[in-house]
Amino acid sequence: MGDDDRRPGLPASIAFVKPAVVAAGHAQEPSWGRVLATTVKLWVWRRRPAGFRQQAVPGRPSRKWFHWRPEHQLTARPWRLGALVLALLAVAIAAVEFTGIFSRAAPVARPPVGEAAAAKAQAQAAAWIAGQVSSDAIVACDPVMCAALQADGVIADRLLPLGHGPAGPPSANVLAISSATVSQLADEYAPGVIASFGAGRTRVEVRAVAPGGAAAYESALRADLAARKSAGPQLLRNPHIQFTAPEAGQLRAGEVDSRLLTTLAALSSVYSFRVTAFGDASPGAQVLFREVTITAGRTEDEAAQLGAARSLVTAQAPPYLPAHATIIHLTSGQAALSVEFAAPSPLGLLTTVLTVDTQA
């Protein structure tokens, strides 16, 4: 069976249709301000006093003007007429100001708060997976997360869309799913949360898949923890590596990724250096430290030593090939080498070594 049979493709992308735009040149309805102003003008004209008459003005044949005939008197009380005119004018001015506000561009419709929070969590999870998860890992995901991952640059061949059937994701390495859809099946096949984004029902969890199930995963996790607790103190006794107190405590507690422990041991066989920090980039979950920062043991040729150390670690084969190995500068200005491995942290790398040593 080929790869195309094992990895179903993503569903067709959803096309978003933009609303039609009214063609330029179509007549637009007059504003309410103009309508009311015209109404006031007509009202005043129809109720003009009898003393007004339309008379042509010499020299201006194209326009009509109203002139007062003094031989006539107003039949209505002037103050009442003036009050009505002023009142209508005030209404017209207020309408113009009111409609002026609403004649501006209509506000963009915003999604409900829950939808916006869910979209934000999905985007953050997709960006984290694209940047932190191993580039050859298969990611099982619900349709929404699969679309977000593909939009963030994760190729479709690495995505395994989850269906609605009873089948689990044993062929995947990582599961990305909303907490609202986490099922007993997901807990069985992917019990280890390695990152999470958002909160409540909008939370997105990234989990490490355990093909053997939750029981086998817990057993492997306990064995791997014991191996890391044994390897850590051995590094502390290595005369070519110096550690600060926090990093020494993390080694004794078995909180450092097995790939980092092996890499530090390999580097110490050639160079002397100082470990300044362990780190990880997994929000929302307590995971192993996958990143280490080291400085050169001798300051006179630190650039050459760090460059050679970087060449050594980037020449390794998986699973000991780091995702990133970069020369950086600390806040003090000192040069350092940052080595980071991709998620998730594999189990059992040290267990076999310890078993062989015990039997020898």
Q: What is the N-to-C order of secondary-structure elements (H for helix, E for strand)?
A: HHEEHHEHEEHEEHEHHEEHEEH
Characterize the largest beta sheet: strand count, sense, and whether it forms a barrel.
Answer: 5 strands, mixed
Low-confidence stretches: 1-27, 62-76, 96-106, 353-360
**Which percent range describes the beta-strand content?**
15-25%
CATH hierarchy: architecture of the largest domain: 2-Layer Sandwich
- Computed over alpha carbons, the radius of gyration is 38 Å
The computed structural class is alpha/beta
Major beta sheet, strand line-up: 4-3-5-7-6
Q: What is the count of DSSP helices, taking H or I runs of 4+ residues?
A: 11
Shape: globular
Return the CATH class of the largest domain: Alpha Beta
